[in-house]
Design a protein that fits this description.
The chain starts with a strand and ends with a strand. The chain is 38% helix and 19% strand. The protein is an alpha/beta fold. β9, α10 and β10 form a beta-alpha-beta unit. The longest helix has 21 residues. The protein has two domains: 133 residues, 3-Layer(aba) Sandwich (Rossmann fold), CATH 3.40.50.620; 124 residues, 3-Layer(aba) Sandwich (Rossmann fold). The chain contains ten helices and ten strands. Strands 3-2-1-4-5-10-9-6-7-8 form a ten-stranded mixed β-sheet, with helices on both faces.
Length: 271
Amino acid sequence: MKDILVHMDDGERCGVRLDIAITLVKRFGGRLTGLFARTESHRPSAVAHKASEALAAARDGARVLFADRCSAAGIDGRWWQLAHGDPDHVLAETMFCARFADLVVMGQTEAKSKLVPEDLVEHTILNCGRPVLVIPHAGTFTDVCGRAAVAWNAGKEAVRALNDAKPLLAASHSVVVLSMRDPHDAGPGTMGEVPRVDVIDHLAVCGIKAESEHLAGDHIGKMDMLLSRLCDLGAGLLVMGAHGHYGLSLKRGTGTRHVLTHMTVPVLFSN
């Protein structure tokens, strides 16, 4: 994770995710890129595809914040900014810029917020091809490399998330893998005896010591069960695969969207 990108705007939580991104850059070395992307509140300027005075002022303020904190931390910082705040432009360009980083740091979108398109974070997660670390819009978080939890169902998205998160997991104090599947389930299309695959064994070979736990029970949605267990564990990071139009919790829409709405700890998503 040498090349990290953090989404910047003029919201109250911008400084929180910037500090987390800086901490990660200091831990892994490399460079931090600040990307200013915000919707335009002045409709004529959005239609004309140019920044209004208010948007330019917000951009300049965010740039000063970024430069000051990078300088204070002694890290290599680079600044990017979008030309204007048309919502479609913000969606498309944020996602595209995210493809040129090892890790993208974004903030959970607050309800009724007009700073960014409502689906900016989800759109970026599902389309950028990079891991996206989302920071909740409430709470204090200084470092995500504490106690980590992994939502595991052996699906493609979960596999991608686990692999993308290995640097964070290796730096964490403890790791627990929360299995979202029946431990007796055989692989697709298998009959008879199959290799005894074990994600804990795989992580151990990668130098990551982890514990395993199976989330059982159908009385509540699996995503709610997962979020509740995070609280019990005191986890400071969740790693999970991201899904588009389907997920692990059919009763509550996609698991990705449900966690994005109700998350209380930073979550690393991969698709």
